[in-house]
Amino acid sequence: MSTELQELLDNNRQWAADTEAREPGFFSRLLRQQTPQYLWIGCADSRVPANELVNLLPGELFVHRNVANVVVHSDLNCLSVMQFAVDQLQVKHVIIVGHSNCGGVKAALQDRRVGLVDNWLRHVQDVRNAHQSWLDTLPESQRVDALCELNVLEQARNACQTTVVQDAWARGQAVVVHGWVYGLHNGLLEDLRMTVACAEDVHSAYRRALARVHQRYQDLRPPTP
After folding, report:
1. pTM summary value
2. Residue 176's beta-bridge partner residues?
3. Going residue by residue through the chain (225 aa), what tens digit of pLDDT does each one get?
């Protein structure tokens, strides 16, 4: 195995040259400020590159990623990113993005031990446990993706309940929390309609989004003969 990563360095130089040729002065402007309107909280999976999925340039999307796109009230890393994005950068949208066939969600669903991350995935197992009776009604082939979507709804609700978002709403700052899921099989993002713009709408938005998830999987079932 080579200890050098020259290919990546060469790719970087080519990317920088192409970007500057396409938009002269791009890096000079980027150096002066970043003014993203969006905070993306997504999975660390290498198949889900945030900026590329929404075709945004550097400086247009603030990003935080972790295993299984979890928002936990005790995670100071995630909360610090949220606080900086909302309070300092004044982002308008916080988007929680899960993806189909998520390895972390699959491990949580199946109680599969994979190492230290098992402790982190307890949060996803809590989601599974809360919805276990419904998940058990689904064909086994659909349960991972269904739990991926349920996890997005729960983590979006958690984001709404953080002090960062609650304080922003209390002072009248416009911040909207969204829940999306990305399909690895087709490259498309889907809005799960967990969209919340004020503290009073958190629970009703969650209930409506949850009902839509249930209905969609109901519609996927083959008709009864």
Report:
1. 0.92
2. 93
3. 778 899 999 999 999 999 999 989 989 888 877 889 999 999 999 999 999 999 998 899 999 999 999 999 999 999 999 999 999 999 999 999 999 999 999 999 999 999 999 999 999 999 999 999 999 999 999 999 999 999 999 999 999 999 999 999 999 999 999 999 999 999 999 999 999 999 999 999 999 999 999 999 998 876 665
Kindly list the domain boundaries of the chain, sorted by start residue: 38-220
Angle, helices 103-110/117-130, rounded to nearest 10 degrees:
70
Q: Is domain 38-220 annotated with CATH 3.40.1050.10? A: yes
Beta bridge partners of 93: 38, 176
Catalytic residues: 43, 45, 47, 99, 102
Rounded CA-CA distance 108/20 in Å is: 44
